[in-house]
FAD-dependent oxidoreductase
Amino acid sequence: MNEFDVVVIGSGSAACAAGLRAAIGGLKVLVIEKSDRLGGTSAMSGAGIWIPANHIAAAAGIADSKQEALAYLHAVQPPKQKETDSGRWAAFVEAAPDMLQFLAKNTPLDFQLVAEPDPFTEAPGGKMFGRMVTPRALSRRLLGRFAKTLRRSTLPHSFTYKEAVDLDIYHHPVKAGLKVWNKLLYRWLTNAGGQGTALMVGLIKGCLDVGIEFRLETRAVRLIQDAESRVTGVEVEHDGKKSQIDAARGVIIASGGFEWNKEMLDQHFPGPIDRIGSPSSNEGDGQMLARLADAALLCMDQANIYPCLPTRYERRPSGLPMTFQAEPHSIVVNRHAKRFVSESDFNIGEALDARDDNGITVNLPAFLVGDHRFLDAALPFRWYAAYDRGWVKKASTVSELAGKLGLPPHALEETIARWNAQCATGRDTDFRRGENSWEEYKAHGAPNRLKPIDKPPYVGMSLNRSILGTKGGASTNERGQVLREDGSVIAGLYAAGLAMANPFGTRAVGAGTTLGPNMTWGYIAANTILKQNQ
């Protein structure tokens, strides 16, 4: 009952990709999940997946190569990461296309291309199309008795990610629904969903079909090591009782981030945080387990950061990732009432989290400010804003709004005056808002997203960091093996996803550079296990 070849901690996309690869390779696999829901943060996601040089693009006649993908990564990632993560980038680029083909062959997942460009399209190796894929909808009924345990999302998973993107459901929810009403009805009747629901239905179904065992409400509390410090199993707690599970070939930590661990979050992300958009079970268990096993923890100040609307999940305040900060008649300013980034920048989260040499944030608290026309840009904004009734401030003058937000009034007046002058010329000379391919794409065909802020009442709200998942954890090599501080390998221990020191940190190189790399690292770790002791 408690003897396996591989034990995987966590049940998200990285965990299931790892477990599936190990099981297809002939190993006996157990996946443990500490909550009563399967799927982790991946089940809540939009399921955009960034995989360069993938087989779906190749079949569609889209030119791409691993060499171009690697050139792109080197061109756009921060210098510090170039120094430390080039080897892991190369390993990702080499394995990612194989991983996607493996999933397509061994699960019910049916991937399709999404017409989203790389955020840094103009950089060497950047592509306008072909690297973003997403699954078509799948029914939860495929999971049998596990169907009810699949984690739900704050996102509308009745739509697929491709539909959400193509139909722009944030700005046109009713129109979008009418265009695909027959599909939505069918999915309702068949208990089907797109996005993270489809992704995790397909992955879990693939795992079940090859005999992987899932145990819910089973928390890993300690890694078991032999006299040579090799990890040989996991001590778990279930229903108040502790037991030992043997893992003859290895343990893979894929338990997600630590954003719901207040002590860890305060330590590594000091300063204001607006919302968290992940399951509250992401408490850093994997990071703490790895540290107790003498692993080095790195990249603990990295995270998937993106603006979130307020909502509720698991009966508590939560965040819904949405690009509301790029609407016309609004700008984003820092605590000095100055703009510091293009509001349409895909990596606005990186700018929000910018820190000085002492680790102190330089722009927070930050705010979105605009006039009343901002509120009319999208109906969903008003709906979700109602979850936090004190969030949106209104005022009859810019000076009065500054007072309500705690900003210097004269500086805010100057910033808005400068913005309005740039709107008159049609060009943002400070941050070139709307000028690159990504920002043109996100404008959904609007000829000019630069609109003045000059019609009272004026509105403002906090726009601090919202975290969808931290990206720090166990240090790993290009084979997914966990390392000590001195760089030596902890035998039998592997990490993947947001529980590892992720080589794709806060800066995202594509809308799917959380899920794509996460699943790839799970796949890489399992491949390494399969090659050991052969």
The first helix runs from residue 13 to 24.
